[in-house]
Amino acid sequence: MSVEHAKINEDGLPGHERRMDEKPDFMPRYEGSDRLAGKSAIVTGGDSGIGRAVAILFAREGANVTIVHLEEDDDAAITAHHVEDEGRRCLILRGDVGDKLFCEEIVRRHVEAFGGLDVLVNNAGEQHPDKDIRDVTEEQLKRTFQTNFYGYFFMVQAAVGHLKKGSSIINCTSVTSFEGSEELLDYSSTKGAITSFTRALSGNLAEKGIRVNGVAPGPIWTPLNPCGGASKEKLKTFGENTPMGRPGEPWEVAPSFLFLACDDGSYFTGQILHPNGGTIVGG
Q1: Which residues are catalytic?
Q2: Which pLDDT band, with edges at 50, 70 and 90, does 4 fall under?
Q3: Of 5, 51, 82, 261, which has the maximum CB count within 10 A?
Q4: pLDDT digits (tens, 9 = 90+) for 92-106
Q5: Do you know which CDD domains this protein is assigned to (predicted)?
Q6: Among residues 121, 20, 32, 112, which one has the least CA distance to residue 68?
Q7: 279 backbone dihedrals φ, ψ, rounded to 5°
């Protein structure tokens, strides 16, 4: 199933996973145990990278999934194929999460398809490396916040009326929220906002029994970095500055989202998990 609500990004980000020479490893490593049986989830940025790994793992655990993507139709089709191989249904929605009306459409179409909503994963994002803050244009600054933060806010606004006690919202923040990034000034700022939003929203929704948590990945091998999200210099040593000395793979991050989505994480709200290769951060 698919519906189109298109927006063309300025420079081709987040990029096509299918075209990468060294492709990310996204498949789950263990058999499912029905931890999300009978549930449904929306995963923004679900066509590739971390979002793809999360969508497939959720399907393996029993959830029907809506994946939202910007313009990479080929990647989205691959993700949907894997979700359906797990015996679950997958709705593909194409568009810009920075558009409030589209976020409302996402939730409406998901609920129509699956009869409700149990898990919202806000994962879509973009980043643009700049060594000099003066190189960050007003347009870029607004665009990065529109996608990375406004999109999360709009999705929660659209979804919250359909969530119930036991539902879960999971926001993808970043290690840069805690330690910054000298080349990702606007991106790091959005991730700091997402971390604060996660903590504030968790208190706001606690009485309703809706849990709100975040995942703060370190350097993970996804299309976002080699397709323009990191400088050529950074790519040469990508992930080598972590204690583990390597970048992570999407499949290594997805279980954090699963834990927070299912009943295993029932006593977690307002918390951030850190699959980052061993980097110690505060909070």
Answers
A1: 187
A2: very low
A3: 51
A4: 999 999 999 999 999
A5: SDR_c1 (cd05355)
A6: 121
A7: -70, 125
Domain residues for the domain of 216 are 2-6+36-273
Domain count, the chain: 1
State the pLDDT at residue 9.
Answer: 40
Please tell me the pTM assigned to this model. Answer: 0.91
3-state secondary structure the chain: CEEECCCCCCCCCCCCHHHCCCCCCCCCCCCCCCCCCCCEEEEECCCCHHHHHHHHHHHHCCCEEEEEECCCHHHHHHHHHHHHHCCCCEEEEECCCCCHHHHHHHHHHHHHHHCCCCEEEECCCCCCCCCCHHHCCHHHHHHHHHHHHHHHHHHHHHHHHHCCCCCEEEEECCCHHHHCCCCCHHHHHHHHHHHHHHHHHHHHHHHHCCEEEEECCCCECCCCHHHHHCCHHHHHCCCCCCCCCCCECHHHHHHHHHHHHCHHHCCCCCCEECCCCCCCCCC
